[in-house]
Design brief:
This protein has a five-stranded antiparallel beta sheet with strand order 1-13-12-11-10. It has a three-stranded antiparallel beta sheet with strand order 9-4-14. It contains eight helices and 14 strands. The chain has helices spanning about 25-45, 50-60, 95-105, 120-140, 145-155, 255-260, 265-270, 295-300; strands at about 1-5, 80, 85-90, 160-165, 175-180, 195, 200, 215, 220-230, 245-255, 300-310, 320-325, 330-335, 345. Mean pLDDT is about 80; it is low at about 1-10, about 280-300 and about 350-360. It is an alpha+beta fold.
């Protein structure tokens, strides 16, 4: 279900933002504004943090590019000698070493490895069977490739994220058998046919509007894996460790695909215009000037949504999971549908304990 919001205050004055009662319309509006406000604040504060400087320096060093700490680029030849008769080339030893480390790490990418609890013959056979299922699972869900990509990014930047989640809006369509027409001569039904199962629901009639009936094809869902760099996933920038209370992952989707998933919000989605706000790094780093123009992103059909995962704790006992489009529309707010946040941090090519790794360590 989706609603619009125009609240200017980011957080409620008398309670924790994650514990807002989203069963009411006002609560949904407040929650949408609080979630998007965190994304906006993250990217506003990011360019001035040591974390951002470390990430950008690591990227420039890996690709031999100039930066604020070094005006030279290994991709440009220089001149040497008393009269400039020699050509000088800079050798990126650090980047070369990083590439060697990546090649070594990719030989030991993490993957599920079931272990027998005893040496019983039946147990060993079951472990072998489970291993086959898990190998198929990590291959089809993209988890294995995600681990490889995250390993590369973590070695380059020092940090990466793997988002492994259940997507109810993808996968094959759910089908049902429909009896064929009755044969007038025999009185027997004809051969059955397959047709898509439709999900039927109605809008909540917010803002005094008349509730409408909607229907869309139901899918079976599937596991999906996405990999993000360290600057793509907003979190509490003030934390000194990686025991995150919440994380926000981006979700890019075509405007018309989003309407097909949430037809009850068609009017709000089609009217939504991305504002020129620092919820991406285009306005904060040296990119083409055209990409900084608001009119460049105002007319395109590609929209960026943000999905927040808040772990269960004392303030939010059931956790929180919701998706927002700007601070105007919120989709499906509800308890966290996982035992923990389904976003796995990678650090420098391997997974570490979230509670012991410091974000600001060099």
């Amino acid at each position: 279900m989706a609603i619009e919001t125009n609240i200017t205050n980011i957080d409620p004055p008398d309670q924790y933002w994650g514990s807002v009662d989203y069963s009411s319309e006002d609560g949904k509006r407040q929650l949408a504004n609080s979630i998007y406000g965190r994304v906006r604040r993250y990217y506003e504060a990011l360019p001035n943090t040591y974390f951002y400087q470390t990430i950008t320096k690591a990227l420039n060093i890996f690709h031999s590019l100039p930066g604020w700490y070094n005006p030279f680029s290994a991709t440009v030849l220089g001149r040497g000698g008393s009269q400039g008769q020699n050509v000088s080339a800079r050798v990126n030893l650090t980047g070369s070493m990083a590439r060697s480390v990546i090649a070594l790490l990719l030989q030991y990418v993490p993957e599920p490895d079931p272990t027998p609890v005893n040496t019983d013959v039946d147990t060993l056979q079951q472990v072998s069977l489970v291993k086959q299922f898990l190998d198929k699972y990590v291959e089809e869900s993209g988890l294995k490739q995600g681990f490889c990509d995250a390993t590369k990014l973590a070695e380059i930047y020092g940090m990466a994220f793997v988002h492994h989640y259940w997507d109810p809006y993808s996968g094959p369509y759910k089908m049902e058998d429909v009896p064929g027409p009755v044969d007038p001569q025999t009185g027997m039904p004809g051969p059955s046919t397959k047709q898509r199962v439709m999900v039927k629901y109605q809008s909540d009639g917010a803002d005094g509007r008349e509730p409408k009936q909607f229907a869309r094809p139901e899918r079976l869902g599937q596991l999906r894996t996405k990999v993000f760099g360290p600057l793509d996933v907003p979190f509490d920038i003030s934390r000194q460790d990686c025991d995150f209370d919440w994380l926000v992952v981006p979700w890019d989707i075509n405007r018309y695909d989003l309407v097909a998933l949430f037809p009850e919000a068609e009017e709000a989605i089609m009217a939504f215009t991305p504002r020129n706000e620092p919820t991406h790094l285009d306005a904060n780093i040296n990119r083409l000037e055209a990409e900084k123009k608001s009119e460049r992103i105002a007319d395109r059909d590609s929209l960026r949504l943000w999905t927040i995962y808040h772990k269960p704790n004392a303030a939010v006992p059931d956790g929180l999971q919701a998706t927002v489009l700007g601070d105007e529309i919120i989709f499906a707010p509800g308890p966290l549908g996982y035992t923990e946040i389904p976003v796995i941090p990678f650090y420098h090519g391997h997974i570490e304990d979230r509670k012991s790794t410091r974000l600001n360590s060099s």
